[in-house]
Design goal:
The protein contains 14 helices and 12 strands. The protein has 415 residues and is an alpha/beta fold.
């Protein structure tokens, strides 16, 4: 495993020129959009080879992938320095594919208790299917260790939790998973490979909601799972016998593609894949600016008399600040804050002119939302309390507006 302190960002040249270097028809700069659903062959033997996996870099039916999605998968694999990736119709589709194709009834998962609201809802579905999920504060590895059982198959964390910005003890959890032979799944959506590569802390699978940091722009839904090559699938008990005959390094991805795409149909369209690929070209530039602006806004809010608390990993007051500085190149575009008078939240948000009152994350425009009465309303008060979500918590996804303009707008709204 490489040094966890390695914060080197992906090569901008590789990201911008990746399509061309892999070969593009007719000298085009970008990969074309392949909208064909069926893919035909002159020889029936080749068609059989597609189905049996002996004819490489080939396609049969678009539900399992197209040349356009394959080009995006290659780009994500390069960004995460993995051995392969699979794209899905959304980040939640990617998560669902992992949990529903790699776990069975009677299995156990240990997860950070600080997770995306829809992920928390998905855990409820897993419990209904006989897959138990234990939720812990993953800021200390010993809390994770204490929850492990003989039937534990997987440990799941987010690099920076949405919306509270908690940071897990990423490297120590990776070492624990390696020691116990557990699949370590890390959701890298908030940071993206521009700020952090989960492979450096031993993750076996990496999830990115492509909708957000990697694509930006708020114009395309998509998700991806990347296999880092660090997990030994030969010892994982839930791989179907149908896929045991191939290279062990590809068995996890094969099961995800066959079960998650072919059987479940969570397919990313070529049009969306193309938009995401274009957005990824500016990933480094966008993340650098939005992270710098978020830190400036967080410092301003922290010093304002009307604000009770600010949650941003690069603030020295953050409980996991030392971990964040150790692992991440910057703090990302996500921050949250609480007003001293929670009854004032709606009035303050309505006075803001630049941030858009909307759900969603990672857009080029700043988005803002009161958390408890919206995205975590369905979870209920008990779950919100467990996740540290106060009634007055406000989530901000910082966009590409200048820091000065945003601070001026917040100052006016808070006055």
């Amino acid at each position: 495993m490489s040094d966890a302190k390695d914060k080197a960002a992906p090569s901008t040249s590789d990201t911008v020129h990746g399509d061309r270097r892999l070969g593009v028809e007719h000298g085009a700069i970008h990969k074309p959009i392949h909208t064909s659903v069926q893919y035909g062959y002159e020889r029936v033997e080749d068609l059989i080879g597609v189905f049996q996996g002996t004819l490489k870099n080939s396609f049969s039916y678009a539900r399992q992938g197209t040349p356009t999605t394959a080009a995006l998968e290659a780009k994500i694999t390069q960004l995460e320095q993995g051995v392969g990736s699979i794209c899905f119709a959304s980040g939640m589709a990617a998560l669902g594919a992992i949990f529903l194709t790699l776990l069975r009834e009677g299995d156990h998962v240990v997860s950070s208790q600080f997770v995306f609201g829809n992920t928390n809802s998905l855990f409820g579905t897993l419990n209904d299917l006989g897959i138990e999920v234990s939720k812990v504060d993953a800021g200390a590895v010993e809390r994770v260790r204490a929850e492990l059982r003989p039937n534990t198959r997987m440990v799941f964390v987010e690099t920076i939790a949405n919306p509270g910005t908690q940071v897990p003890d990423l490297e120590a959890i990776g070492a624990l998973c390696r020691e116990r032979g557990l699949l370590y799944v890390v959701d890298n959506t908030i940071t993206s490979p521009a700020l952090f590569r989960p492979k450096t802390v031993g993750a076996g699978l990496v999830i990115n909601s492509l909708t957000k940091t990697i694509a930006g722009h708020g114009a395309a839904l998509g998700g991806a799972v990347t296999d880092t090559g660090l997990f030994d699938w030969a010892v994982y008990p839930n791989i179907s016998p149908s896929y045991r005959g191939i290279d062990a390094r590809q068995q996890g991805l094969q099961q995800l593609r066959k079960k998650g795409l072919r059987d479940m149909g969570a397919t990313l369209s070529p049009e969306q894949a193309h938009r995401i690929s274009l957005g990824a070209e500016t990933l480094g530039l966008r993340v650098a600016q939005t992270s710098a602006t978020a830190l400036s806004l967080a410092r301003f809010l922290q010093g304002h008399a009307a604000v009770a608390a600010v949650h941003y990993p690069m603030l020295e007051s953050h409980p996991q600040h030392a971990l964040a500085v150790r692992f991440f190149k910057a703090g990302s575009w996500l921050l949250a804050f609480e007003l001293r008078d929670s009854a004032n939240v709606l009035a303050v948000l309505n006075r803001l002119q630049l941030p858009i009152k909307a759900t969603g994350l990672g857009d080029n425009r700043t988005l803002i939302i009161p958390v408890a009465p919206t995205i975590y309303w369905e979870a209920g008060p008990a779950v919100r309390a467990q996740m540290g979500i106060a009634d007055g918590l406000v989530r901000v996804s910082v966009g590409l507006e200048s820091a000065d303009e945003l601070i001026e707008d917040f100052a006016r709204a808070l006055s």
